[in-house]
Fold this sequence. Notes:
Blueprint: H1 2-24, H2 27-30, H3 35-47, H4 49-80, H5 82-86, E1 91-93, E2 99-105, H6 110-125, E3 130-136, H7 146-157, H8 162-171, H9 178-187, H10 192-200, H11 203-215, E4 223-228, E5 231-235, H12 237-254
Parallel strand pairs: 2-3
Antiparallel strand pairs: 1-3, 2-4, 4-5
Helix pairs in contact: 1-3, 1-4, 3-4, 7-8, 7-10
Amino acid sequence: MRQLLQYLRTSIILxxxxxxxxxxxxxxxxxxxxxxxxxxxxQIIREHPEVLIESVQTYQQxxxxxxxxxxxxxxxxxNINPQAVIGDSPTAGxxxxxxxxxxxxxxxxxxxxxxxxxxxxxxxxxxNDLTLVYKHFPLTPIHAEAMPAAQAAWAANQQGxxxxxxxxxxxxxxxxxxxxxxxxxxxxxxxxEKFKSDRLIANTAIEQDIQLAKKLGIAGTPFFVINxxxxxxxVQLSEIEGKxxxxxxxxxxxx
Length: 255
C-alpha cells in the first residue's frame, strides 16, 4: 500500500507539472497534448485527494525550510559583518552604533509613510545608539509609482541627499509622480542632469535590494531586521525602542 501511495504521489506531481507546462504553452502547442493526460490526473485527484494534500504540504515544508535557512545565513552574516549587509545603502544615525536597523520600504506604501514618522522620532531620540539602513522594496504589482520613486531617491543618494529626498517623498506621498520628483530635486539643489542620468541606471542597485527581500521571504512593507548586542532578527516597529532600551541597559551594566 505504501509503495502504491508513493507511486501515486510521484504520478500526481509529474502530471501536475505536465499540466502546468501545458497551460503555460501557446494554444496551438497545448492542443497537441493528449487530453487523456488531464483526465488521468483528475481521476487520481478524485480517488486519492489525501495524496495531493500531502504532496502540497511536503512542498510547503520544503519551501519553509529553505526560507528559514536563508534567514539564518543572513543573520549570521549580519552579526559577523554588518557592513557587508549594509553595502552601499543609505544610512542615518551613528555609524559607530552597536545596533543596526535595516528597513525594507516602499515609497508608495501608506504604512511605510507612517513608519517614517516614527523612525524620525526614534532617530532624534537615539541618534547615537542606532544606525538606520534603507533598503528599497517597491511593491510594483500594486504601487505604480513605487519604482519611479525609488529610482529618484537612489539618484538623490548619489549626490548625498537621500534622506532629505526620502523625507520629501513620504511627506508628499499623495503627489508621487514626475512633477514631484523633479520639484524635490530642484528644491534640494541637485545637479538635474546628473539626477536624470542616475535615475536611468538605478535599477541594478534597487534590484539587489529586491532580491535580498525575496530571499528573506519578505511579503510586505515596512519590514525591519535589527542587529543589536542582545537581539538579532526581524522586529516590529513597536518593538524597536524596547530593543534599543535593552541595549542601553546592557551597555550601562558593562561599564
